Amino acid sequence: MALDFATTYKILVLGDSNVGKTCIVHRYCDEKYYDTYISTIGIDFKQKLINLDGVPVKLQIWDTAGQERFRTLTTAYYRGAMGILLMYDVTNLESFNNLSYWLRNIHENASPDVVTVLAGNKCECQPPQRMVEKIRGEKLAENFEIPFFEVSCKQDVNIEESFITLARRIRDQRDRRGESFDQDGNAQDTGSANGLSNSFMLGGRGSENSRCAC
Ligand SMILES: Nc1nc2c(ncn2[C@@H]2O[C@H](COP(=O)(O)OP(=O)(O)OP(=O)(O)O)[C@@H](O)[C@H]2O)c(=O)[nH]1
Ligand SMILES: [Mg+2]
Hints:
The protein is α/β, with parallel strands linked by helices. It has 6 helices and 6 strands. It has helices spanning 21-30, 71-75, 93-97, 99-109, 134-143, 159-176; strands at residues 7-15, 43-52, 55-64, 83-89, 115-121, 148-150. A 6-stranded mixed sheet has the order 2-3-1-4-5-6, sandwiched between helices. The protein starts with 6 loop residues before the first strand and ends in a 38-residue tail after the last helix. The relative contact order is 0.23. Magnesium ion binds at residues 21-22, 40, 63. Magnesium ion is lined by residues 21-22, 40, 63.
């Protein structure tokens, strides 16, 4: 199946630095997992052709840098996103507390049609490493009426489910609001990731940092 003929769904992966955004993209697209932490520089993307309930769909997954110094750059990509995978790390309470920041940012900068899925990563970790109970993620997701998964890139838990749920919600949103997207699936009210040049994609694997203790 030629990739070029499939409809493209643009997905942005957001969340604090070190929550596992790059790992989830690699796990889903390449079926690989890296134990070393190499902080993303700017923004990067990968593509994956999926069979969404019998229909070929190309997922273009944008892996953003969580570090604050890249926020202006990454915020420029919100407009073009049709779906957002918002992540926190169950071993890092601050990354959970910062979800209010990320949700506000999405509300202020993304298309009103954007759909979101919440993912709590590193779920294989047990107390005392685990700092955020599953129920807290469930309650937050319930408040914002978004689907929620605890995931583990390390043990490949709920990764496929998270992306497929996101893709289904994008499809359903497109079906409801078909007029908001052009034939290539681009959000029409622009500033889209599409329009930004490759020079902004600084390609991911910059400075080496710490590992998760789990
Ligand atoms: N225990 C555990 N560690 C994980 C898991 N997923 C990712 N990690 C580790 O978490 C660290 C950060 O992962 P990244 O994917 O690079 O984090 P990021 O969110 O892309 O970080 P930035 O690029 O700085 O925004 C790495 O050391 C990974 O090995 C997981 O499921 N379990
Ligand atoms: Mg990264």
